[in-house]
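User: I'm preparing a small set of examples for a lab meeting where we compare how different chains pack in three dimensions. I only have the primary sequence for this one, and I'd like the structure in C-alpha cell form so I can line it up with the others. Please keep the answer compact; I'll paste it straight into my notes.
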Amino acid sequence: MSSTDVKDHFVNVFGPELGSKYHSLHNQVIHVHMNWAMIVELTKDQERRSLLHSTGRHFFFEVHRAFVNDVLLRLSRLTDPARQGQHDNLSLWALLDDICDPCIKSRIRKLIEDVEGKIRPLKQHRDKRIAHFDLDVALDPNVTLPPFNDHSVDEALSAAGDVLERLQEEYTGTSRIQMWVPIDTEQNIEQFLHYLKVGLDQSKARRDKLLARRQGTGRSTQN
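Assistant: Understood. Below is the C-alpha cell output for the 223-residue chain.
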C-alpha cells in the first residue's frame, strides 16, 4: 500500500481534516519507532558496541547521539501545544480540534495527557540542550536535566502509539494499525555489522601481511 493509499484510507475513516492530521502524525510515530529500533538494535550488547568502537569510535558515538537526539526531538513535538502564538502545530493535541464526539474527545484527551506526562522529562532535553542551549545547563554543573533510559523512551513511544490506535478503534471498532515501518530492523543491522566486521578483518589481514613482509625484508637485509 502506497503512502497515498494510506492517506486516502485515513481520510475515508476520519474525514479530510482529521484524516490528514492523523496520517502525518502516524508517519511521525513510525519514523520515531524506526530510528529508535535501529539504535537499540545497533548497540544492544557489548560485542556490537566493541565492534563499533573498533571501526570508528568517535564517529559512531556521534551517530548514536544524533539518533537519540532525533528521537527526543520528534517525541517532544508530538505533545507541543496545538497553537503557540500565531502559529499552529501539528501535534497530538491538534487532533482534538476535529473530533466532534465529546465522549471520544474526552477519552483521547486523557490518553494525550498520559503521553505528555511520559514525554515531559524528555522534552526538557529538547528545550534546554538540543533545540536550545540553556545558559544554566551549559555553564552550571549543578544544573542537571532529568535522566532517561531505554525504558522511558519505550514507554513514551508506546503511549503515543496508544493514542492513534485508540482513535482508530473509536472510529472503526478495530485498533489494528501498523505503528512501525515494515523493515526488518534486526536483519538490516546484522548485515551492516557483518560488513563492518568483514572490513575490519580484511584490514587486519592486510596489516599482518605487510608486517610479515617487512620483517622478512629486514631479515634478508641482515643476512
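A couple of notes for your slides: The longest helix spans residues 185-222. The chain has seven helices and two strands.

User: Perfect, thanks.
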